[in-house]
């Protein structure tokens, strides 16, 4: 299942890494100057030197005007030393304001997950019992993105808040199935549960990681939370070499979102969970894992 409100058009703000020489520097000869010549050149450019190297001047960075000119040819750009380059600017985003971090989930996070899951329509939510089962049986397959507020000196240390989660189990099937999503009745007593000769719920050793929920708290949707968590999750599973693929089911409007991470649509899903109407999506590792 996937978060229906995650914005598909989100992108990280771009960074200005281009070469931007000072406008009064185009007449400087910088071939291989001596220390004296370098000091004279830097003095003309308004840069102070200490032992032949430019000083870091934070105040100067803030007062730099916009009289910068683009260099049209690379050969011209290479004539300017590195201190003529404007450092890249990091544009803070709404995600930065959350001071986020990711962490594996456990049974202690059940109530947090129940709260996050309210982002879904009622018929599509994971139940508390299923969270207890999945976070007890295979917690290593679930990941949460938390926010940690800044601590005030006169207040106790704040508790991290779960903002988004990915909860999953293993299956031997190539796609998510209704059987994989079910809660085994005797899971506390039996490691494996079979019905009609087929495994139900989490299958130890299954080659497919079946994601059952990617959810984001409504008040934090549209902040790149879901996409950040998904990228981190894919990276962890791929680097750990513990599965052949990741599978998920989603509604039609979210197919492009998952395709942006490398998932491929396998067409309409046979799952009838929550009333059906899902699309199977699969991210195969295969050659990607072997070459990494």
UniProtKB/TrEMBL annotation:
One of its GO terms (cellular component) is cytoplasm. Residues 194-284 form the N-acetyltransferase domain. Gene3D superfamilies: 3.40.630.30. It comes from the Eukaryota. Residues 1-34 are annotated as: Disordered. Keywords: Acyltransferase, Transferase. One of its GO terms (molecular function) is aralkylamine N-acetyltransferase activity. Pfam families: Acetyltransf_10 (PF13673). This is N-acetyltransferase domain-containing protein.
